[in-house]
Design brief:
Helix 1 packs antiparallel against helix 9 and helix 11 crosses helix 12. The chain has 12 helices and no strands. The two termini are 33 Å apart. It is 70% helix and 0% strand. By secondary structure, it is mainly alpha-helical.
Length: 327
């Protein structure tokens, strides 16, 4: 799956180097007509509106789970409500990045860059420590993609449930591929920030795409292999929602050190998911501005903030809808 993301990256590079007056919406409109353009951009906005709530709630689940684990380790009889706490945290994250985008895209982008620096530090530490653990203690090899090693849950089969198709090896592999295809996410960032990339744009786009590809390939694939190799089969289901945290608790070394690293991993995961909320807000604001420029939305939305010069009405609309989705 991660190797296939090279093709996705190439498509984003080719489309992002074009200077398109009015944005990509104008290209779709001129090529396929106004109705197709409206349907397409509606799907894109729908994607952005869902990305921030899902990422924020997922980050909240990580954080609430960590706090409950720490309370259990400390023998404190307190358990925070998982879903309500996650929703409350998601609302706080969305409101924070609403404020940052109100100040301007440069302000919000600097916060995202800081998050990625911390995430890169965590990835290097995890891979080095995981490699040392494998060297000292050994690891369970990942099972081969054979039918006898594939066990599909009821929710995994979808409309194929009850049919004979999952027994076909090629179809079974495609089912797994379909559930893993979201690991390609990250390349769409190029389409959201290409207007701010410095000259020479094409070379810098390729550099950014290569960095995204290497980071996602190394992190996603090696974390999956470490999760299989270091976490026993009986314990792994407990960490399906936080595989990196499970790996941290099964590394070699003193328990206190592993627990500290587990906290660090969860905090970084929360920051990365929170950064996805920021990306969704930036992308939504950019697309809606292009629609307003083309006359699809009234100019009232494009009124800029008197102090910051940002299109605050679009931001208010986007963030309000995202908070409603969370609730």
């Amino acid at each position: 799956v991660m190797l296939c993301s090279i093709a996705v990256r190439s498509v984003y590079i080719e489309s992002s180097i074009l200077f398109v007056r009015g944005g990509a919406y104008r290209v779709v409109k001129e090529a396929m007509g106004p109705m197709a353009a409206k349907v397409t951009v509606s799907a894109l906005i729908f994607d952005f509106l869902l990305t921030a709530p899902i990422s924020g709630v997922s980050a909240g689940h990580y954080l609430i789970g960590l706090l409950n684990e720490l309370a259990e380790f400390a023998e404190i009889p307190v358990s925070l409500p998982r879903d309500a706490g996650a929703a409350f945290f998601a609302v706080l994250v969305i409101l924070y990045f609403w404020r940052q985008n109100l100040l301007g895209i440069e302000e919000s982008s600097s916060k995202a860059l800081s998050i990625m620096k911390v995430a890169s530090t965590m990835v290097v530490a995890l891979l080095v420590w995981g490699g040392i653990t494998v060297f000292l203690r050994g690891a369970q090899p990942a099972p081969l993609p054979d039918l006898k090693n594939m066990h599909f849950g009821g929710d995994a089969l979808g409309w194929l449930r009850g049919s004979a198709l999952p027994a076909i090896p090629f179809v079974a592999l495609f089912i797994g591929f379909g559930h893993s295809i979201l690991a390609m996410s990250g390349e769409e960032t190029l389409a959201q920030v290409y207007r701010e990339i410095a000259h020479p744009k094409f070379i810098n786009l390729k550099r950014a795409a290569i960095a995204i590809f290497v980071f996602s390939l190394v992190l996603t694939s090696l974390v999956s292999f470490l999760g299989v190799g270091l976490i026993p089969d009986s314990d792994r289901p407990l960490f399906f929602d936080n595989l990196i945290g499970g790996i941290a608790m099964h590394l070699s070394g003193p328990f206190q050190l592993r627990l500290c690293f587990h906290i660090f991993v969860v905090v970084v995961g929360v920051l990365m998911l929170a950064g996805a909320c920021n990306t969704a807000i930036i992308g939504s604001n950019g697309v809606l501005n292009r629609l307003s420029e083309d006359g699809v939305l009234v100019d009232w939305f494009r009124k800029v903030h008197r102090e910051y010069g940002t299109t605050y009405r679009f931001l208010n609309l986007i963030v309000g809808l995202q908070i409603l989705i969370v609730i």
